[in-house]
From TrEMBL:
This is Uncharacterized protein. It comes from the Bacteria. Keywords: Membrane, Transmembrane, Transmembrane helix. Residues 14-34, 77-96, 106-127, 158-177 are annotated as: Disordered. It comes from Nonomuraea wenchangensis.
Amino acid sequence: MSYAPVVLDGEDEIKGSRVRTATKPRTLTSPPERSRIGDIRMRVVYRGLAVAAAVAAAAVAVVVVLPSEPDGVVAGPVTAPPAAQPSSGPSAEASVSVSASASASASPSETVTPAAPAAQVTPTPGTSLAPGYTAMEALYADPRVPELTAKVKRMRLPAPSRRVTKDRRSGLAVPKLPKPWKTYGPAPFTTRQVLPRLRGGTVRGMFVTCPLPIMEQKSPRDSALLAARWTLNHHPKGARITWLASQPVRHGWMLVYRVTYGKRSSRAAVVVVDGGMSKPGLAFVTVPDAQRKQWSDIARVASGVRVLG
């Protein structure tokens, strides 16, 4: 009976012998669990981040920021602006035809609301033109300007002055008034002459010319009326007109009037003459009661305005 040699654990195997080292049996254990995130390769993570960034950029590109509505304004359906109405006001037939044509052209999914008729607006004194009114209708509604009736008489005019100032922009030659009048910087007019300013006074005499600053009317008389109303912008606040004279002049019309503001007043005149330019020329003179000695120069202006030869 033979026995195999026994080699203790840790001793080397003897070369050439059949004796092998006895080893302890090994127990197999499962590898440690890893997190799922660690199992994902980094390039996959980077690819996912790139896709998320592209989606966010596309979302920002399609977002449209609309301006906020002003306070008190509620956004509503967009409709075409109503057509301009004639000066005499909108007619019933025009309103019906416009509403009918708009309803016919609208798609079935759209609802067209007919425009409400324009409300009657009274011109505000001091404004040039109220909505829906012609220039003359606004003039007649202005309480500062009374009606020019046939009771307003003509005035006798002196012989025209030989000394003139030429206004080539308006095509007029106008009197060059004697002292104490003096030439002054014309802006915003084309020529200007003024009286010396009184101590403590805010109003002084002024004589100016320029192309007609308002819309020309069919008749020189109506143009002169609108020009007289416009001159109230160059008088103290609250000024009102009283007509003193009205008469035709060569190629135009002349008006002389009193302007009252509080306890004070001025004498004034406008002369509208067609000087052959694109618009008629205007000569306007005003002298306050504090300089009443020069009121006679108003008649000189009225008689001396003529077409520049």
